[in-house]
Amino acid sequence: MSLLAANQARLEKALNKQYRYTEGIMTVKEQVDRYALGFTTMEESSVEFNRRKYNNMLADEQAEYQKKLDKKVTKYYATKRGEFLISLPKIVYEFYTTKGAQA
């Protein structure tokens, strides 16, 4: 299996994954095709801050936790009406924002 075929298989698996949305159970592809108005990326912290966990740590653990909070990762989203966001895997985001969506 070539690398191109493997990536195509990963894309198909990601697009056909089913989730429960407010509109009902549907695949990522169905959700994006029906409701997405655009696509965006956001820089977010790699972990979500947990005050209780942070307060129970020692000083060196807190410093390590703070480094994780300061580390930013790129998250990919499709925007829906009313500024609601659909979280997407990177491979799906790239598919819809490049020529792959038109083909």
What keyword list fits this structure?
103 residues; alpha+beta; three-stranded antiparallel sheet; extended
How many strands in all? 5
Query: Which strand-content bin applies to the residues?
Result: 25-35%
Tally of discrete structural domains: 1
Q: What is the terminal-to-terminal distance?
A: 23 Å
- Rg (CA only): 18 Å
Structural class: alpha+beta
Proportion of residues in helical segments: 40-55%
Our count of helices gives 5
Order of helices and strands: HEEHEHHEEH
Morphology: extended
Average of pLDDT: 89
- Can you tell me the residue ranges where pLDDT is under 50 for at least 5 consecutive residues? none
Largest sheet: 3 strands, antiparallel
Q: Give the strand order, joined by hyphens, for the main sheet.
A: 3-4-5
What does this structure look like?
The protein has one domain. The chain has helices spanning 3-15, 28-35, 51-55, 59-70, 90-97, and strands at residues 18-21, 24-27, 38-45, 72-79, 85-88. It contains five helices and five strands, in the order αββαβααββα.
